[in-house]
Design goal:
The complex is a heterodimer of chains A (177) and B (430). Chain A is globular. Chain A folds into two domains: 87 residues, NADH-ubiquinone/plastoquinone oxidoreductase chain 6, subunit NuoJ (Four Helix Bundle (Hemerythrin (Met), subunit A), Up-down Bundle), CATH 1.20.120.1200; 45 residues. Chain A has 177 residues and is mainly α. Chain A has seven helices and no strands. Chain B is globular and about 90 Å long. Classes of the chains: A mainly alpha (177), B mainly alpha (430). Chains A and B meet through helix 2, helix 3 and helix 6 of A and helix 5, helix 6, helix 7 and helix 8 of B.
């Protein structure tokens, strides 16, 4: 077994990229710049998945979010007149909800940090740890295996939901089919 | 000092890719080699495309710079580097600046997992093919941002067309790829693989290229991919994002000089990247023809002579052209240069005939030869087919390729599981 290539340095680098990207998303006035910052954050997130030995999730993250959804985002944003948006004053009517959510998340982080630094583990000890090379196969087993495949139903329900969303979009976009 | 030499040479004995062996130095060397090789391939493609297109249209093509225009790509590169680099006044300078780099990064990063041979890849990922599809789909971001940042009409229309086109053909492409990945699981254990090296090894173990597997399913999947990959790389006949007659030059209208050359570089390396996906998935990657039927040391020797013979043939072509050069004093330097180029090619051929090099280089040669076939097809398409109209393009993508791909996926699954399905029926009858 080789020593892990992904050291703490990479974690801090990626985490910093994500945080800076996230801040840029909400502070940029230009929507296209925000979208590009969001793409950066999503790519850094994919790299974090890689560090967690979950390459399949990382690959899907790149294909779906960075490659697919963000292209549609950009597509829509580019059809908006940016010049008018730039002149408008930015407003935020959800600051109260935002503060509550941020405080809750911060409290969670502080709790986890203080508990774990005192030696109390909040997480299940025997977490499943597979090598990087088995990740995709393990996901397939959890989904499709006859005995261990317990997420098949949930997976199918989720895809059915997406199908409903697609049909709904078509119905709403087209008056007459 | 000794430890460093040990570390570097430790890779030479191993049978892994440098990424899998965890050897940092060799990984860097491989990355540099792939980068240099790609740049040379793009330069060659540039020259070949102009020459072949010209000959298809009964022209001569570039003939002025160097013998048979051989130095034309270098002259062009110099011109592009020396040209003034213009950023339009109304453009979004930052995004305009970033866009070409996104395209180039996406086009070059995918080569991390391209298997030129069982050990000749920078690294082998468990999600190889997924990584290639994902990263190459990032190129569309660069194109869209380039079109938008130019703040001009034609680039924006080109960018919108290109994103619509690339997003819709990605779907059909993905379906074709999934059917090929399903074929990798047709072994005793029933476990498939997404790793690029694993896919080629599966073809070796199953004794056939996936092109011919479950005839005609493999060929249909390959056909879908072959159409979708031309659309993905925005090449003729699907080059609507840069349709000259309608959009000037599409998304890169406002780009000039070095930045334009980055787009050019990215386009050609993306072509090579998708061709290498096709070669890996359906044409047996680095495997030489008939690795299972024509076995034995004699056949091994015969096939390992091919790389050297190819270079010898090129050298012979050079010498033949040298003899045919005009006998005018003004052409003396060009004639000498061509003869010198022939000598260099012959020397490379001599190195490739040498035992150890012959064995090491074989896989790379067969892989590159198959990819080169695709590159020729790209040029051929450009010389042959008229450009599609945009509604026709969308119709082909969504109404022809997508349903065919879906049907193919289901059929491949049924054929792959035929023994299980049959036994289920027999149990049901009993």
């Amino acid at each position: 077994m080789n020593p892990p290539v992904a050291t703490a340095f990479f974690f801090y680098l990626l985490a910093a990229t994500m945080i800076i990207g996230g801040i840029l998303v909400i502070t940029r006035k230009n929507a296209v710049h925000s979208a590009l910052a969001l793409i950066t954050a999503l790519l850094a997130q994919a790299a974090l998945y890689l560090m967690l030995y979950a390459p399949f999730v990382a690959g899907v993250q790149i294909i779906l979010y960075a490659g697919g959804i963000m292209v549609l985002f950009l597509f829509v944003i580019m059809l908006i007149s940016i010049e008018r948006n730039m002149k408008e004053r930015q407003f935020n009517k959800q600051w109260l909800v935002g503060i509550v959510a941020a405080a809750a998340l911060g409290a969670l982080f502080v709790t986890v940090y203080t508990k774990t630094s005192r030696g109390v583990s909040l997480f299940i000890e025997g977490r499943m740890s597979y090598g990087e090379s088995q990740n995709t196969q393990m996901i397939a087993n959890l989904l499709f295996d006859r005995r261990a495949g317990m997420y098949m139903f949930a997976f199918e329900i989720a895809s059915l939901l997406l199908l409903v969303a697609i049909i709904g979009a078509v119905v709403m976009a087209k008056k007459r089919i | 000092m000794h430890a460093i030499v040990e570390y570097i040479s430790s890779y030479l004995q191993s049978n892994q890719t440098p990424g899998a062996a965890g050897n940092f130095v060799w990984a860097t060397i491989y990355i540099l080699l792939v980068f240099v090789g790609l740049s040379i391939a793009v330069i060659c493609m540039n020259w070949l495309e102009r020459k072949i297109l010209a000959h298809m249209q009964v022209r001569l093509g570039p003939m002025r710079v160097g013998p048979h225009g051989l130095l034309q790509p270098i002259a062009d590169a110099l011109k592009l580097l020396l040209k003034e680099d213009i950023i339009p006044a109304e453009a979004d300078a930052t995004v305009f600046w970033i866009a070409p780099f996104i395209v180039v990064l996406a086009a070059f990063t995918v080569f991390v997992v391209v298997p030129f041979g069982p050990t000749h890849a920078i690294t082998d990922m468990n999600i190889g093919i997924l990584f290639m599809l994902g990263v190459s789909s990032l190129a569309v971001l660069g194109i869209v941002t380039a079109g938008w940042a130019s703040n001009s009409h034609y680039p924006l229309i080109g960018a919108l067309r290109s994103s619509a086109q690339m997003v819709s053909y990605e779907v059909a492409m993905g379906l074709a790829v999934v059917s090929a990945i399903m074929m990798t699981s047709a072994n005793a254990e029933g476990t498939g693989t997404l790793s690029m090296i694993g896919i080629v090894q599966a073809q070796l173990e199953q004794h056939e290229w996936f092109l011919f597997k479950y005839f005609p399913l493999g060929i249909v999947a390959f056909g879908i991919f072959a159409i979708a990959m031309v659309a993905e790389t925005n090449r003729a006949p699907f080059d609507l994002p840069e349709a000259e007659s309608e959009l000037t030059a599409g998304f890169h209208t406002e780009y000039s000089g070095f930045r334009w050359s980055l787009f050019f570089l990215a386009e050609y390396s993306a072509m090579i990247a998708v061709s290498s996906i096709a070669v890996t998935l359906w044409l047996g990657g680095w495997l030489r023809p008939f690795p299972n039927a024509l076995t034995g040391p004699t056949w091994d020797l015969v096939f390992s002579l091919f790389p050297g013979l190819t270079f010898l043939f090129l050298a012979a072509l050079c010498f033949y052209s040298t003899v045919r050069m005009p006998k005018h004093p003004l052409f003396r330097i060009q004639t000498m240069g061509l003869a010198g180029f022939g000598v260099v090619l012959a020397l490379i051929a001599a190195i490739l005939f040498w035992g150890p090099a012959r064995v090491r280089v074989q896989d790379i040669y067969w892989f590159s030869a198959k990819v080169a076939g695709f590159m020729y097809l790209y040029i051929w398409y450009r010389g042959t087919f008229p450009r599609y109209r945009f509604d026709q393009l969308m119709k082909v993508g969504w109404k022809v390729l997508l349903p065919t791909g879906l049907a193919l996926l289901i059929l491949t699954a049924i054929v792959g599981m035929r023994t299980e399905i049959l036994s289920m029926f027999q149990e049901g009858l009993r």
